[in-house]
Amino acid sequence: MKTNIGNIERGIRVVGGLVLVALAATGTVGWWGWLGLVPMATGLVGWCPPYALLGINTCKVKDQQA
Fold first, then answer.
1. Which of 17, 20, 52, 61 has its CA 20 to 30 A from that of 31?
2. Does residue 3 belong to any structural domain of this protein?
3. Which domain holds residue 40?
4. What is the pLDDT of residue 62?
């Protein structure tokens, strides 16, 4: 798996996911808040399956192969 998510987007995904999970854990929002685990996980890993399928890459670092 190559990284296909840039650093800024990764941070946004992790923070947004944490907020949704925290709201779900406190009962502020319904069960759908637990869906915040998905953007949080993709942000931590740095790879997004839909981006890979669609050929999207927001990571500015070029793959360096010899």
1. 52
2. no
3. 14-54
4. 65
